[in-house]
Amino acid sequence: MSTQRPSWRVVGPADRRVVPWANGAGTTAVVARVPDTDDWAWRLSLADVVEDGPFSVLPGVDRWIAVARGGRMELQAGAPDGFRRTVLDETHGAIAFSGDGDTSCRVLDGPLVDVNLMLRRGTASGALDVYELGAGEPWVSTARAVVVLSGRVRLVAVADEPVDGVVLDGETFDAIVVDGVRDASVSLVADGPARLAVVLIAHEG
Length: 205
Description:
Elements: E1 7-11, E2 17-20, E3 27-34, E4 42-49, E5 53-54, E6 61-70, E7 73-79, E8 82-88, E9 95-98, E10 103-107, E11 112-120, E12 124-133, E13 138-142, E14 145-150, E15 152-158, E16 161-169, E17 175-179, E18 185-190, E19 194-204
Antiparallel strand pairs: 1-17, 2-3, 3-4, 4-11, 5-10, 6-9, 6-11, 7-8, 7-10, 12-19, 13-18, 14-17, 14-19, 15-16, 15-18
């Protein structure tokens, strides 16, 4: 465990910066990027998907994606042995794919919001996991960022330091981002059924 004391911040709608997709076909709302420059090592964002279309080709970037809210989408991602198709919805966890190849999605039953993690290969490595909690259920794990996708959770502690009075609301996709330390523990308790997207960073820099 790192001895560096982490700093952390809550990221709500007003804190997210909206930027265009690399291919210009849509926009994404940035929850966090590290470092906070265009030459980031990793980036976490939320995007509205309202119609079928291609994803940006991002050479050298490893990607993770999950449906945060809304309908289903079929993701067709390029792979060395051809294309693979995966149908994603709110009951499905996150999947990984490469930004190197052609990727597109088909919206199957209505618009949706997805949550995206991008990692610049050779600079950062990690994963995006999705967890479901029941009412009153605690959740404790190391995390670099947590986005509440549904429900409400109370932040209890960061790196074993108690936190009081911080509530994260899934209606607005509130998030906590831990700065500077990869292995800080985050402790949450769900007020009711809740769903979380959790970023784990194994290597950075």
